[in-house]
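Why does residue order matter? Because the sequence determines the fold. Keep that principle in mind as you read this record.
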Amino acid sequence: MSALEQEIIDKIRKLDANQQKQILQHIESIKPKEFDADEWFRQVEEFRSALRGKYGIGHVNAQGLLDELREEASWPRE
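Structure:
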């Protein structure tokens, strides 16, 4: 535990019960949400659909660029 963490804990312990409860409620409200893979995939698909709608299915994508680079790198060099 870092010195800062210990200092925060010490200061919280000096507060009365109601103040401690308020601090804990505040901490609960700002803690990051757990990662939701289903929601992330839904957002990715939504973004992908928006790109396909704007540019069409045959537009250049990251995988296509990587494939091109691999193909170019595999050619014999003189």
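The radius of gyration is 26 Å.
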